[in-house]
Amino acid sequence: MDDRDEKLKIIRDEVLRLTISPLYAYRCDNNYVPVIGQGNHHAAIMFIGEAPGKNEAQQGRPFCGAAGKILDQLLASVHIKREDVYITNIVKDRPPQNRDPEPAEIKLYGPFLDRQIAIIQPRVIVTLGRFSMVYLMNRYGLDTLKPIGQLHGTVQKPHPLENETYAPIIIPLYHPAAALYNGVTKEILFKDFQQLQSFI
Ligand code: URA
User: How far is the CA of 70 from the centre of ligand 1 (A)?
Assistant: First the structure.
């Protein structure tokens, strides 16, 4: 086990015991588990989704349901293996009925994501959907006034924050679930994914 494995395990243990979370009772009542993240702890590319769905909360793995199938197709289209990247979400527990994460939930789980990013230090962060896009762009002081319809597929290069030595390149993309029922969004996602080839 290297230093990163150890630090990520500490995060997992803290989230497991996160009884103050508004999603904790729902987790326990349904025998769900939190989804911390999965993949290479030395990944150059990190994908950040929104929150686990039902499949994910049952299995403890990110993107293992219908949206995950799309993500797998997207990764295959640029010859990236799942085991070479790191995949996580901003909110680590499933919100009831897959509703949007609430601001208080993002505020509570966000610092765990910040720590995962600081440990793995990926060269590129791909945000999937508007929640992780807004969170990351806000964190790095980037303009979040534009909608995802304008920002998707752009390559954002923030400066490191004060007291930090590192900042990732951020590429906002649509959420793969949006491609499930919208062929145009699916085409855009596949096109935007091509950007990743230059970061492998
Ligand atoms: N949607 C997400 O945002 N994350 C998952 O892990 C699964 C579906």
Answer: 11
